[in-house]
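INFO worker-7 received task bundle
INFO bundle size: 2
INFO processing item 0
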Amino acid sequence: LCMLIVYTIQQETTFRSNWLVAGVGLLFLVLGNFFKTIQPNYFVGIRTPWTLEHPTVWKKTHILGGKLWFVGGLVLVVLAFVLSRKIAFMGLTSITIVLVMVPVVYSYMVFQKIRKQKKIES
């Protein structure tokens, strides 16, 4: 993003938001591919109280999150080159909300399921 801004200023051209959407899409793509290998920690990943508390919740959440982020990034890259600037930027906003909310809700559901199973076993 910084390089894009510096280039735009130096060349005195208009800002091309489609390149921004494509760049963010590539970032999501790479991060999604990386999510499967992240071990539980307090610095990187989908860090909700539930994922940090239980390793199984962490693993399941990051497997789902990785797939979602990879597909979301791929969709954003395609949108950036197919749609107009305004629609591509709206797609960026919408997809980002989905990529954030779905893993958080999923992690909570998995945590509740594990908690219920432990209560039943007790």
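INFO item 0 finished
INFO processing item 1
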Amino acid sequence: MHAFTTRWSLVDGWQHAASPQSSDTQLLLAFGPLDAPTSAFFDEARVRWPKARLVYCSGGWLIDRNEVVGQCVVVMGMAFERGWVRVEERSSVAEGACESIGRALVQTLSADPELRHILAFTDGQYINGAAFARGMASALPEHVTVSGGLASDGTHFTATGVGVDRAPAPKRIVAIGLYGNVVVGTGSSGGWEAFGPERLVTGSDGADVFSLDGEPALDVYCRYLGPLAAELPGSALLFPLSLASPDGGPSVVRTILGVDREAGSLRSAGDVPQGYRVRLMRSTNDRLVDGAVLAAETACAQLGEVQPAALLCVSCIGRHTLLRARIDEELYEVARAAGSAAMAGYYSNGEIAPPNGMSEGPPFLHNQTMTITAIGER
């Protein structure tokens, strides 16, 4: 397997040109602003990599090797010697259909028993990522794992999209099957710790949380934030929620994206079902960096003796906001753990991966994590 990264911008065109082996590239993952790719971008990509499918996912900030960049498109290409890919896209997806589409995509891709892993990318505004992940989990063969993320537009939260061999657009879902001798490892970690008592979700509707322990959710949340409550919703990035199912199992992190002071409610980046329990979470920059390194080490270790050729990084946009000046340090440490692998990715509205700290298991929608997918070939 061979992998590489390159960049494209309207002003400068293609930068650090791709490897000579790129004529055999089967898959291109492109990350950039929603409105960045022009017809010239897709036309030139087809000429450079005629055999490749190009999957574009919007991101507010982008990862190219160990550097955070913007105002360009970052592209990672993969060429497999004994593996192959299949790309499926669904358009005009209604929110209520996300779970059934997730299930159907897995059933389609797993019709070939050589399926090893699915990379999934969705619009980050209209698609219910938690329902989509549940649908995939319900049909996933035992030996197959899933990773990916929701598209982003930075901290604007207005318009995101994905696309295959064409400009990205809202309400789309893309699923990529990796087959044959492809070997994939995943790791997802946040570096957060829970504090305070558990609170029962007594009133919610999807991502809107109305009451905790019978009190307005915003009132409970503000008590913990103290003076920082005046800085909501921005300060909410410092205090996500740990969400635990009443049936047990691993907890997931939910970012608070907004508040409704009149309704006394919180708006989460994913479903917070009634009957679940939540706790506030906090972290430090050191813990966040350590979490990213743990995710990289977990993903790479699953490949065993196989060296990773590509490292896909999907990190929450909230982590970018929190780490700020230390964001490059996080990527430097991840790159060091990955060795010589090509490394690219973006900052997302949500990450799709097995449970935090676990290398296998059904996919969940996460927030505030660094999710790493290490890809190699036997």
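INFO item 1 finished
INFO post-check item 1: The helical segments are 39-48, 98-109, 129-139, 217-225, 285-301, 317-323, 327-338.
INFO post-check item 1: The longest helix spans residues 285-301.
INFO worker-7 idle
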